[in-house]
Write a structure and sequence with these properties.
Among the domains are: 52 residues, no CATH class; 102 residues, Four Helix Bundle (Hemerythrin (Met), subunit A), CATH 1.20.120. 71% of the residues lie in helices and 0% in strands. The chain is built from 14 helices and no strands.
Length: 254
């Protein structure tokens, strides 16, 4: 068992869901790998610490995050009737709620700044896991939920950014591609994002997606896109509405 193969099994192991050879392989790797053993010990300490926090009544924002998580999980399950999500993904989504409650409590104590920073890091990691997992589902509705979770990722998260760009360029659902274009607004400050958006424009053949990308480039004031926009504005096989929008964008970006 490799380090990458062990990580998704941590929650299963804690829940007692590993059996036979899988459990033996997990324990054998943990005994021989200092890095994984230290990481598992760190997470174990974190979860034990969360269990000691005083119980608090969750506010409206936490309740909203809970139902978002529940919907995302159900959509993922419905999207794949032949197999269940691994337990670690469900645990990751549920952990977002727990960590949100804990962070709300701990943020009121000046003596726990380090713990709050650590929890925020865990929240970011959980959001990334849920977003990336949903974006890989077969169901378009599940992938749309993945795009929704991508909005909550850190703006500098390159894995989520790459997943959104792949969705824009290759997803078979127009709705998912449009939603992914919208989500790229969150990452717009990154030069890598701007370059990826410009490179995506000539790949598109759906007018709605082309117009959405054009509007995004105008919003980001991306003048490096003028070559691609001119190609659309003068293309013989380009939709008339897209041509007009490309010409409008060129005037805006002058």
């Amino acid at each position: 068992m490799t380090c990458d193969e062990l990580k998704p099994l941590v929650a299963d192991y804690w829940a007692g869901n590993l059996e036979g050879s899988e459990q033996l392989a997990y324990e054998t790797h943990l005994e021989s790998c200092d890095s994984c053993r230290a990481e598992v010990a760190r997470l174990d300490t974190l979860w034990r610490g969360l269990a000691l926090l005083p119980r608090e009544e969750p506010g409206g924002a936490v309740r909203g995050r809970f139902y978002d998580t529940l919907r995302a999980y159900r959509q993922g399950m419905d999207a794949s009737p032949r197999w269940r999500w691994p337990v670690w993904q469900m645990a990751a989504a549920a952990a977002l709620l727990v960590i949100g409650v804990a962070a709300g409590y701990m943020s009121r104590s000046d003596q726990r700044v380090e713990e709050v920073a650590e929890l925020r890091g865990e929240v970011a990691s959980m959001r990334q896991l849920v977003a990336l997992s949903l974006l890989q589902q077969q169901s378009a509705s599940a992938r749309l939920s993945g795009v929704s979770w991508a909005f909550r990722a850190e703006p500098g998260n390159t894995e989520v950014l790459d997943a959104l760009v792949r969705a824009v360029n290759h997803d078979p659902s127009v709705n998912v591609r449009l939603a992914a274009v919208d989500a790229l607004h969150t990452f717009g400050a990154s030069p890598a994002t701007r370059k990826a958006i410009v490179e995506s424009l000539p790949r598109q053949d759906t007018p709605l997606v082309q117009v959405a990308l054009i509007d995004l480039l105008v919003d980001l004031k991306e003048r490096e896109a003028t070559t691609e926009l001119r190609a659309l504005a003068g293309g013989d096989s380009v939709n008339d509405g897209v041509k007009q929008r490309a010409q409008w964008a060129l005037e805006r970006l002058q």
